[in-house]
Each structure stands twice: as C-alpha cells, then as structure tokens.
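Table 4 source record.
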Amino acid sequence: MMVRLFLLTCWLFASGLALGSERWAPYPDTLTPFEYSEQNLGEHWLDLTGGFRGPLPSATSLRADAERWPELYDYTRSHLKTIANSHPELAYLTEGDLSEHFDAYATELRRAWSLLFNGQFRQARDLGLSLGPAGYFPGLYAQVLYASLLGTNPDERQALLEEVIERTREILPMAPDHPMIRFGNAYGKARILEDLSASRAMGTGYTSEVLDTLNGLLEENPDNVYAMTLMAGVESGIIEKAGSMVARLTYGAKASSMERQFERALELAPNYPGVYYEYARAKLKVEEKDGVEPALVLLNQLSDKSPNSAEEALLLQAADRLRQRLED
C-alpha cells in the first residue's frame, strides 16, 4: 500500500505541475449562473445526478463506503496525511481517525460537487483531488467536462483525459467493483478514442476495454443512463472509423444497437441534454449526410430546455453550435 501510494504521489505531483501551469478557461458569463453549495446541494442532488453518481455525500454514505472498500479508505487516510502541509485547510481531517471527521469530510465533498455544478471546474478539480478518491469523482468529472466542453487546446485535452485514466487506473484495484471509478476510466478512454485515427485507436487497446467496462456496468444496472449513452456513442465511433462490417464482426458494434440504447436513454432521461447531443453526433458519424436531418430533429428538441447545472448549460451551448453548423 505505501509503495503504491508513494509511486502514485510522485506521478500525480509531476502531472500536477504540468497541468497546473495551464490556465483553465472560465465558465462563460453568457450562460446561466448557478449557486449550489454544500448546504443546499441535498435539495437538488437527485435532479442533478439522476441517481447515477452515488448517494449525496454524508457521514452515513462515507461509513458504508469505508466498510465496502476498506483498502480505498486506508488509501484515503494516507493520502490526506501526505497533503496536510500543502493543504493546511484540510489538515484537521488527519487529527485522529478520519471516521471521527466524516461529517466534515462529507461537507468538503459536497462543496467539491457544488463547485462542479456551478461551473467552477478548476476549483472543483483541485479540491476534489486534494480530498482523495471520494473527491476524485467530482474532481475528475469536472476535468473531463472541461476537456470535452470548454478546453480548446488539443494537447491539453489529451493530457487532462490521460490523467483521468491514470488516476482511476491506480485506485481501481482497491475497489474493482466501484461503478464510478470504472465509468470514469472508461469515459476518459472513450473521449481520447474520439480524437484518434482508426489505426491509432485500435493500437491503444482502449476500445475493447471501454466496451467490456460499459457492458459490465449495464449488466449490473440496465438503466444506467450515463453508461448507456457512452456505450451508444462509442459504438457510433467504432462504426465511423472501422466501417459497419468490421465494427460488427470485431466489436459487435451495430447501428441498430446504438439506436436502441439512445432511444432507451431518452426514455429514462428525457430532460438530460447530453443524450440528445450525443445522439445527434452519433447520427452524423454513422449516417454522414443522411444523418443531418435526424440530427437536427434531436437538436431542435433542446431549444426550450433550461439547464439545471453548468454541465447542462455547456451541453445546450454545444448542441446549439452544432445545430447552427448543420443549418448553414
């Protein structure tokens, strides 16, 4: 455990220096502002997460996680000790056993999630990663949202996504059945695959890993909207890069399966703009010019939707920009 912690700390320090030198673009002030906080987050948690990002952080949920994944809990305690000097505001969490501070620790986690939903992505990332694995969920989620929806530098985008993969890969052996760690790892890989040519994508080995992970998550929870949407999007990317025959024979990816998963996702989450946006993109990948009209039908359904979070506001912005490009 200590050797793993030391090696991970060294890697994270090096990557943190590189990423820390980059200035993140702020959440646009032209979009809807949000004011979630650690105090009011509980009132909105279900609407913001759909029930697929775990329970609202609380002393009870942290205690249950510590019992279910004891190695991850031990790692968290060690991690907090290593960052006590660099983050003195969190040093109190190392006084005695962490279990004595679960209420306060849960408050910090809710604060990280609130920063994410408010669009303060860099702050959410920094606080989340300082809190250890439980904080990785809002922290790395903020990072992938920034990389996917706000960042414009391709090299920075790849570095951010690779960090997500590496961090989740390192902690996965401590909680191999943890759905959010598995999903985060698959999401980072899926977004990197989008930017690669067919030959480079196949060379990473990521495609099979992502499909295996998402299939496992959907077997455990067939109504997991986020896994379902990502799976359908990945299938569309495989078809686009490899062609329908190779995609079907090599990976089992089919346009009919993609359609079925997106349609089911729309049934389960009709107000989540991410499903419409990813479905429209998938139509264009698979059907090319023939996909323009159905893509516009999907994007136009978002015209009267109001966002619940910065993520949704950015997705609506991305969808509107795509719609405008298709109409020009």
